[in-house]
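The data layer described in this paper is built around a simple, fixed record for each protein. Such a record has a labelled line for the sequence and another for the backbone structure tokens. For reference, a complete record is included directly beneath this paragraph.
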Amino acid sequence: MRRYSTIIRRICADILIVICIFFFTPWVTFFCVTVALFYFKNFYEAIVAGVLFDMLYGISLEKFFHIQWVTTFLFLFLYFAINHLKRYSRFYESSQ
């Protein structure tokens, strides 16, 4: 039963992130994705959220070397950085 509750929480987090992408400012989306990355193990949906965000709102800016996929790269960086930091965190080890 515990496995299903984790899946349900993960689905609810996915729905919340999609709602944030469509209706809230980007900072709310970044905060929700960061919290979900810390809370869930291997939260690949963050990368998908970055792709969706860039497909909807991404424009190439000169200050980012004309790359349109800035949010996707940001979420990729956050994914790997947070997964690396979780190995050294006492809080994350005790919650597993």
